[in-house]
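Hey,
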Amino acid sequence: MNHKLPGPNAIRIINTMKKYVYDSTFIYPLVIANGHDCIIEDPDGNKFLDFTSNIGACPIGYSHPDVMEVLAEYSTNGTHKIAGQDFYSKEHADLAETISTILPQNFKTFFTNSGAEAVENAIKIAYRRMGPLPGISCFGAFHGRTLGALNFTFSNPVHKYNFPELPVKRIKFCTKDDDPEIDVTESLLKENKIAFILTETIQGEGGYYVASKKFIKNLRKCATQYGVPLILDEVQSGIGHTGKWWAFEHYGVTPDIISAAKALQVGATIYNKKLEPSNKSALSSTWGGGNRIDMAIGMRTIQVIKRDKLLENATKMGTMLMKGLHELVGKNGVTDVRGLGLMIGLEFDTRTRRDKKLTKLFRNGLLTLGAGHKSMRIIPPLVITRDQIERGLAIMNQVLSRN
């Protein structure tokens, strides 16, 4: 590991980016060139243990043999990008059929490009049924940055400043069953006509806060009682990161609409058939998941997770990781650890300290990311091993135990 980071090749790429690209949310000077297993390599040959899985988008790590097999198969296929809502393809059919095996009964799927589009179409389905009424969403929520989804995002003021807004009713994201605001949703539904309830079960960008069981069960009960669709955003938590296919399975509820993406490789709006719009073109997308390679990899990812029992591994490795992180609480500004499976948040006393530690971990060969105001998100690939967990914890102990 070269501790003089970034190296010369990485610097050239970063300088080009700074010249020609909007400087959005880059954290530290990592340039990704290659990877294998849970290791990412930069263009100067530096290797990093990845505790981010690119925000959950690489659930089976890098250069996985099954993925490489798919890429080899498509290396000679010149029609990898199609207008996926205008033309049919086997990959589209295969992914839809495969994802149906991990969904509640009587659900259908509409594929798009991204998580934000998945949320946009979830909202559209609800509006079609209920009309253009206010939606309920949570403080601290993140549902995407496109203008529709952005209305229900509330994790960072800079995301929303000076942009137009749709009508929203905000509720607290309750992490404890005895929270005094846990029943607020019912009073809102009594007093207002509402189009939908939209929430995460684990707030992703908001800080990896885990909803209380009573909170989610209350939302399901209220949605049913008042005939309002419950949308659960699983863009970051879905496809195994919590030790179950969907985070909502930890709560014993079934939503009416689900948004997914990241680990799936394409966006997906998943809905109970009873909510399907009656007009054929109510939902549409130029590409509609139309990258055949991404759809093929998405299908293979689900198959690998099943075959290799990676949900069980996520639970087992997550327990080990959580135990090790608990030992850091109370040391040098670490105030809390929380999560489910391999989706874990580490809380710091200040944002400044959190940001400083992110960079130091990077320089010591471990990749993590920020979330919320002063949280660190840890979401390794589902293929992570005991040795890699121990190595990551050793680096974290070394870095976080110092001022």
